Amino acid sequence: MRISDDDIRKYNIKTSSNMILDKFYKVNTKTKSRFNFKLALSISSLMILATTFILVVLLFPKNTINPNKNEKETLNVNEEIFNFQVSSLVTIISNEASLLNEPISNYPIRNRLCFYRENLENDEDIFFNDAIKEYQLFEDVIYNKYYEINSNILYNYNYYQGYYNDYKLMLDYNDYKIYINYTNKEDEESEFEGEIEINGKYYKLEGKEEKEIDELELSTKIYLSDEEYYLVEEEYENDEYSYKYSIKLNNKEKCEYKLKIENENISFKVESNDKRYEYDIEVLDDKNWSFKFNGDDKKFEFNLEIDNEGKKNYNKK
Question: CA-CA distance, 241 to 80, in Å (whole number)?
Fold first, then answer.
């Protein structure tokens, strides 16, 4: 092997020839590193991305996406009325499940209203008991509205991923969740759409509110299918209040419940096809209500008595 002058200058060699050779061989036979900088950088980047993904999944709540504090939605409709619409829907479903001895957790939203009226018989006692059950579907709704008992609904303002869409507002009532986006939001009129989650199933909804000086109207539709839906309507005008709960198929009434409250007098009507039942109710005091029932060819009166433990007893006159 020949050592050039360039090698001598490169290694700054100022020793004897044997030392020159030893120095040259050590430098040129040095083991080369296997370290690959580009490969290491790629692996590090992948690890950082994986760690970030895991942290996002763990830290952000379920159904929440892209939280942005500067773009939060707020409820534009009358909160008290809308609370009552949500809670009344849940209450009616719960009462139906209870009257049918079926756990609410296993009771999906379905068309079971008008169930008792369709099975009323000629026997007076059976008729009376079924008429009471029909009223009991709405008993809590009527009681809460008369005494202005408001439901406890939690409003969450963020971004949420629903079943049909993404939403900016979520309402949480017990185990039920409602997701909302506004399609129109003005001082006198608001329109919204969204979905309600009940027992793990999702149903589309839409609603609107109209305001005037001495009048307020709010309606909400909950779709069971593309053709069938529940419709809840409320109207406030001076000292008069009205509430309507109906089931419609292809925009035609299948079953309708109407509630009207004026001072101590309550009118509760049930209508379906050719059948019409009406309960005229007078609130005597907190523990005694008087009823007059008028339906088809049957008329009777009964009282509701509530004892000190809250138990309700219906007594036919």
Answer: 14
Assess whether pLDDT exceeds 90 at residue 201.
no
For 92-105, the pLDDT digits (tens) are: 877 777 776 666 66
Residues 6+ apart with CB under 8 A from 209: 76, 77, 78, 81, 82, 189, 190, 216, 217, 218
Q: In this structure, how many other beta carbons lie within 10 angstroms of the beta carbon of residue 127?
A: 17
Cα 288 to Cα 220: distance, rounded to the nearest angstrom: 33
**Distance in angstroms (rounded) separating the CA atoms of residues 197 and 63:** 12
Phi, psi of 266 (to 5 degrees): -125, 130
What average pLDDT does range 298-303 have in this prediction? 90
CB atoms within 10 A of CB 155: 16
- How many other C-beta atoms lie within 10 A of the C-beta of residue 229? 20
| Domain assignments of the chain as residue spans, ordered by start | 1-30, 71-316
Task: Quote the CA–CA distance of 171 and 49 in Å, as a whole number.
Answer: 34
Q: Is the pLDDT of residue 195 over 50?
A: yes
State whether the Cα torsion 261-153-312-141 is positive or negative: positive
Give the CA distances from residue 247 to residues 82, 107, 241, in Å, rounded to whole numbers and listed in that order: 19, 18, 21
Q: Which residues contact 159 (CB under 8 A, 6 or more apart)?
A: 64, 65, 66, 67, 68, 166, 167, 168
Q: CA 228, CA 250: separation in Å to the nearest integer?
A: 6
Can you tell me whether residue 240 is helix, strand or coil? strand
Question: pTM, whole model, 2 decimals?
Answer: 0.69
Give the model's pLDDT for residue 192. Answer: 94
Q: How many CB atoms lie within 10 A of CB 137?
A: 24
CA distance 63 to 83: 22
Cα–Cα dist 180/160, whole Å: 9
